[in-house]
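Note to self: keep these together.
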Amino acid sequence: MRLGLAANQLHHAHADAALFRWLRACETGIRELKLGLHAVGRTYDAIHRTGYLDGYASLQRYPYGREGGLMKLVAEVVGLGDRVLNGAIYLIDPVDPSSIFPEAVALKRQCVIHGKPFISTVASARDWIEMERIHGGLAPDVGANGFYALETQTVALIAHDAMKPQMLAYAAEHFDVLSRFAHRVGTGTTGQRLNELAWSLGWPKDVPWVTRYQSGPMGGDAQIADLVLERRCQRVIFFEDPHVARQHEADIQLLERAVTTRTDDAVCMTSPRVAARWAAAVRSRASWR
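Structure:
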C-alpha cells in the first residue's frame, strides 16, 4: 500500500510539530505495514533531517510543492499506469494559504471521487494506521485505545443530498458499531432519516438515535464545527458529493477547518469505503484476544 504524504510548514517546523507527533506514535506501525510513503519535498526533507524512518526504503521523495510535487500526488491518486497511490495524508494547517491551492483541493477531491482515504489530521493518521494494522492481523496497539473508546465519544453523521442513500445504507449495515458511541449528531434531513432508520431497527421510538442540528445550508455544519472545536465531537463521518456545486461551500469549509484545527483530537472520514473498513476494524479489534 502506498500513500502520498505532505504537511503544511507549521506541521514540520519544530521537534514537536504534528508530522513528528504522528511519526513518534506510528513509526512502528508504518514499518510493520511496509507502508510506502511518497513525500513531497519539504515534508521528506523534514523527516530525513530528524531521523524518523531512518533507512526506510519505502519513504520516497517527490519534488517540492512549487515544483509540482503535490500535483504529482493528485495524478497518482487518479492513477498513472503502475504509479498509483491508495490515498493521501496531508496534514493541514487551516490558516496556511497553500492548503487551499488548487492542487491541495484537487488532492482531496480525487481521493473522495476514487473512494480513497484523505487524511488531514494527526488523529486521522493515527487512526488509519491502527485500522490497517488490525486488518493486517497485528495485535492492537494500546497507544491507540483512545480512538476505540467509542462509549466516551460523539460521532457526527453528515451526507450531501446525493450521498444520503449511502449514509443510510452505511448506518444500517454498521448500526451496532455506531450505536456504541455515547452520542450521535447530524444535520437536518440526514439526522431525521437516520432516526427513522434506527426506530425501524428497534431503537426506542421516544429516544432520538441522532441529535439533529440545522440543515447544512441553515448552519448545521457550523453548529457541528463548534462541537469539534470544543472537543465535544471526536469523529466526523462526512459523505461528500464532489460532483456538484455547493451553495453553502463556506459552511462546509468551516467544518473541515474545525477538524484540522483540532488535529490531535478529531478524526474525519469522507469515503463510504474507508468508513466501512473502519467499522470492520472496530469489530475485529473488539474481538481480539
